[in-house]
């Protein structure tokens, strides 16, 4: 940092959102000098300390004034004794500064979405009751598909059809997506369907019939890192070329607006990056006045009694290597995990596996079965009906799954334990066959 830079006065905008923390530094002319965007993983305080320390180390202890905004910014502003600006106002301030001819703004955050009408009758609309149609919604679907949220755009590019997915609630959306995955729907189709659901929720749920037209500015992390989402908004709104604009730094616009307010609010006091870092390190944790349930155990003796009682109820275990005779396999194919358990005739648990489903329940169950196959038992495996969901599809999957030994572990609908089918030619990994199949 030069002597000329030290003489300047900067403005700092801190946007503490539901999933990320953004810090923007602007100079006296309102130009963005530096910025950092980072997920806080529910640890806003430590994340902000790390960001401020990083900025101070790289650019020096810059002097200036600061303002806080964001859904998690009120408690942070009280901790730092800084002024707070509502996030819709901060977003509008930055847009009017950089795009004075804009007619509307669509901003998607981690757990909220906003539509701001700037021309005609100015109005701000925001969904603060549910995370449907927001970044959190996209994160949930991406997790189910086993990809990062930023990969949704690339994945959706290969879509060939759109499925109806609930957009008002992320939980309801998962109940729509899970059967699609179990039925073998392409991940690209599900990704595109989720992005279409976000567009539909914003246009119908927030606009509520009022047209979003003219020059529209797209802001927020999801719109910054998922270009295909912007394209779908442009198509859904019927925007012409040049009417739908996603700025280069769409993910930090709210923090930028807070920084602009820092030089205008009379309660803003001089500070510096180093002072902000020191202040938040030394600040006391905010008081927790939330109502809490009574503890499960009033005394240590009650807890120990509970542990002793539950310790008496445990599966007897045995090494798989020591097993002889028939084994019995159970598969619990659930909505988010696949569980496999193998017992012997005496009821001893000899093998178990618990794996999260990352977008492909069939592949997850197959890998668990292959993992069991790699172990060295000399026993014969038999099957029992799995208690999970959507069993016809999983039954077909297990029937065609290749196991190298003389046993095919097949998920069966029958209640009784039945002998597994024999492989006709395991080395060539052909499907199994029995006399029942041939007839």
Describe this structure in words.
The protein is of the alpha/beta class and 439 residues long. The chain folds into three domains: 3-94 and 256-282, ATPase, nucleotide binding domain (Nucleotidyltransferase, domain 5), CATH 3.30.420.40; 100-246, ATPase, nucleotide binding domain (Nucleotidyltransferase, domain 5), CATH 3.30.420; 320-438. The protein has 16 helices and 15 strands. The chain has helices at residues 3-7, 44-59, 73-80, 87-98, 135-145, 152-156, 170-182, 187-206, 221-225, 227-237, 253-262, 273-282, 300-311, 361-374, 391-400, 435-438; strands at 10-16, 20-26, 32-39, 63-69, 104-108, 113-117, 123-127, 216-219, 244-245, 271-272, 326-333, 337-344, 349-356, 380-383, 418-419. The strands form three sheets. The chain has a five-stranded mixed sheet with strand order 3-2-1-4-10. α5 runs parallel beside α7. The longest helix has 20 residues, at 187-206. The radius of gyration is 29 Å and the shape is globular. It starts with a helix and ends with a helix.
């Amino acid at each position: 940092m030069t002597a000329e830079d030290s003489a300047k006065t900067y403005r700092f905008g801190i946007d503490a959102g539901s999933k990320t923390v953004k810090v923007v530094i602007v100079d006296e002319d309102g130009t963005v000098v530096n910025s950092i965007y980072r997920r806080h993983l529910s640890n806003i305080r430590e994340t902000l300390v790390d960001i401020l320390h990083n900025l101070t180390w790289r650019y020096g202890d810059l002097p200036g004034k600061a303002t806080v905004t964001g859904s998690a910014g009120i408690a942070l502003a009280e901790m730092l004794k800084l002024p707070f600006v509502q996030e819709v106002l901060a977003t509008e301030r930055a847009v009017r500064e950089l795009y004075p001819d804009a007619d509307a703004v669509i901003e998607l955050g981690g757990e909220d979405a906003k539509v701001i009408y700037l021309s005609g009758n100015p109005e701000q609309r925001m969904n603060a009751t549910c995370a449907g149609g927001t970044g959190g919604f996209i994160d949930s679907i991406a997790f189910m598909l086993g990809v990062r949220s930023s990969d949704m755009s690339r994945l959706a590019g290969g879509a060939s059809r759109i499925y109806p997915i609930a957009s008002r609630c992320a939980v309801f959306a998962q109940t729509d997506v899970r059967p699609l995955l179990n039925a073998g729907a392409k991940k690209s189709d599900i990704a595109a369907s989720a992005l279409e659901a976000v567009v539909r929720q914003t246009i119908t749920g927030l606009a509520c019939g009022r047209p979003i037209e003219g020059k529209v500015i797209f802001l927020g992390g999801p719109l910054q890192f998922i270009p295909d989402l912007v394209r779908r908004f442009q198509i859904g709104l019927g925007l012409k070329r040049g009417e739908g604009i996603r700025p280069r730094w769409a993910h930090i616009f709210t923090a930028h607006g807070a920084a602009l307010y820092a030089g205008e609010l009379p309660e803003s006091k001089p500070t510096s990056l180093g002072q902000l870092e020191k202040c938040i390190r030394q600040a006391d944790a905010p008081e927790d006045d939330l109502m809490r349930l009574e503890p499960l155990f009033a005394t240590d003796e009650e807890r120990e009694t509970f542990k002793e009682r539950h310790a008496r109820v445990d599966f007897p275990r045995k090494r798989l290597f020591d097993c002889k005779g028939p084994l019995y396999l159970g598969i619990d194919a659930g909505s988010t995990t696949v569980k496999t358990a193998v017992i012997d005739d005496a009821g001893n648990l000899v093998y178990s596996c618990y794996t999260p489903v990352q977008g492909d329940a069939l592949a997850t169950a197959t890998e668990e079965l292959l993992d069991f196959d790699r172990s060295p038992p000399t026993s014969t495996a038999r099957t029992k009906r799995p208690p999970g969901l959507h069993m016809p599809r999983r039954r077909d999957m297990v029937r065609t799954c290749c196991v190298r030994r003389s046993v095919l572990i097949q998920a069966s609908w029958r209640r009784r334990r039945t002998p597994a089918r024999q492989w006709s030619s395991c080395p060539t990994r052909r499907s199994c066959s029995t006399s029942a199949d041939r007839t």
